[in-house]
Amino acid sequence: MTQMLSCLALAAALILASANVVWSQTSIHASLAGRVTDPSGAAVGGVRLTLRGSAAGDLTSVTDSQGNYIFLRLSPGEYSLSAWKEGFAAVTREQLVLSVNQSAVLDLELPLGPRREEVNVTADAALIQLRSAKLSMVVQARRIDELPLNGKNFQKLMLLVPGAAGAASSSLNNFSFSGARPSLNNYVLDGVGLNDERLSHGPAASGGAAGLGDAAPMLVPAESLQEFRAISTNADATFGRGSGGQINLITKSGGNRLSGSLYEYFRNNVLDARDFFNYGPFFDALGRSVVPPFRQNLFGASLGGPLRRNGHHFFVNYEGFRQRLQQTATVTLPNEALIGVMPGDLGRFFRTYLIERGAFSGRLGTVGETRALSGADRAAAVSTGFAPALFDGNPANGEAGTVLVSGALPRNIGQDAVTVRTDHRLRSMVLSARYSFANPNQLRAGETGLRLDEMRHRTRWQSAMAQGTWAVSARQVLEIRGGLHRSARRNGMAEGLDSRLTALGVSPDFGVRINIAGLAINPVILRPGVFDDFQTSPQAALLHSVHAGRWVLRSGLDIRRQILNMRLSFWGTPVYQFNGLVGPAGLLGTSAGQAQAVAATASATLFGSNGGPTTTMRGYRSTQQEYFLNASRQLHPDLHLELGIRYSLFGVFEEVNRAAATLYATQSGRPVPGVFPFTFGRTANEMALAGPGRPLYAPD
After folding, report:
1. Cβ-Cβ contacts under 8 Å for 271 (sequence gap 6 or more)
2. What pLDDT shows up at residue 384?
């Protein structure tokens, strides 16, 4: 008991001594423990054990008086375990496979006999995990390689995890675990967080190449993953950030043999069947509808091996993804005759946007027949002075109505991804470093639904990790890890706004949106710069593990700094709302002679007015701290006790430029930060700008 209290005090001291250091502390290693007995079942102390791994070198341990042994902080992989003591024959267990976060148990029986007699056993079953109550599943590289995953997106396999389910509010790459919201999931790559701190996508900028389509690959190539474990419930105190699933990803490491891979996965429209609803605009020579053009290539190579045998290894992977896809889409527009009678600036805008830019020329897609407006709308137009021939319901007379344009819209995706990792064993220390990079991008149709003003989504994603694991003794391990996760997303028009539209007064920065209620006409949406999102998360962790008797104690801390910069350009997009065909807020106004169409509503955010912020850029900052202490003990071969406590302190977000408002309690007419907004009464509060000393969100 005294020894256990001493270890607890040591763990607490390690945490407190590091509390002022800006240090994701999720455990990414495995452990192997067990008991050694003789043929009668009695414990055998003083047995020397040697654990050999392809990359780890040799690790040694000695059983205590109760015959117990343990190996802490083991990298996932295949091992062999040898045990020997004078008066007993040596025993060797081969092909022991340890997985990420696994607490494996392997008991050994030493037969009597001289040492020159050796018993070799090849593992024919998975190691038992008796020292954990968490519900989880491990997915190894072989399964990822062999299963036919579209885009080799390993996250699709998470639906196999017990407790995982698709959620209506989640993307197809981030699921709900045990009923928790997808935004509560915690994604970790080699111990470094991958989470999108602003949205619920799971990995930042993810969702099939940064949300660019479910057929696209993940930011982390499957070829670079050794395995991952998804924990759906009962995660121990070493896991934090959220109460959802804990997804722990481990990249591959090189070994003593040089090995690699070269691969190509492809899809082609020649191999596809036509969707029943996809009729046109692609036809063969006989006029039969055919599958739209589609090309998808996922290709890459990997190489791993020794920099120097038995201690220094490397692994590198490159993966490219290219997709060229056209998908049929339709949009309903006002036809040329209807545009011709629109008054003033509205008429000039539609003539420039659609007619002069070739929307009805057939260049952008198949132009259908004119559809007449409803009888009520036509009668109202004629009664207000418009030419009856334009509204008689006969398309042959140059009817003013709507037209359906059916086009083949692009969904082109490209991505290059690289992962580089090195591992080095220096006596009692193992040093590892990894860098991952991906730059997914997509070209797609404009927001109106035409091949005009095509949108491009660009992303640059980076993740880096450096860690050192020091075996202080055979029963004590210290691990220090630092990491950096960065993502940058830029969404907007590929070529910017057409100069003919800016000449009409449309903002090249904010664009315009025109909604038309009461008529079957698609809204016009022109947003040159939709959204920019920049996230930077430096993070570090300190972890300590010690085996004291039958107790295994783990403690650690994790400190992250969240730096989120966002430019939401669509905040400034002016929106005009028109109601119906004719009337005070109709497309044609109240009469044929009206000079301008007047919108029912017009809304826009005016930046820089009344001393407000002059830009849509917002910068949010928060520091997040987590500390844990976890103690476990094997009380009986069939009974394991685990105790843990975790303290998380997530700092409130502040806006660095004081450009976000929040509600503050007031006293004597002055804001009082740090208290509930209604502390001094229901009306003793006001809106105030957030900034240093004034957080955007006050804690409950």
Report:
1. none
2. 93
